[in-house]
Amino acid sequence: MKSNNTLVDDLYDYFEEVYVISDADHPSKIMEAVHKPYAIANNMF
Is residue 1 in some structural domain? Predict the structure, then answer.
């Protein structure tokens, strides 16, 4: 299964930083799907 990232490609045209997380990045198990977005958000501030 492959993620559909057409919206992400469009967002790169408007924003400097775009984070692709969870199943939009690649299909994963629940622990990884929750941990990666948390880690990104925790490092933003």
Answer: no
DSSP annotation string for 7-43: HHHHHTTT-S-----GGGT----HHHHHHHHHHHHHH
pLDDT at 29: 83
Q: What total number of domains does the chain contain?
A: 1
Contact 42, 19 (CB under 8 A): no
Domain that holds residue 16: 6-44
pLDDT digits (tens, 9 = 90+) for 1-45: 666 778 888 999 999 988 888 777 777 788 877 888 888 888 887
Residue 36 included in any domain? yes
Which amino acid belongs to residue 41?
A
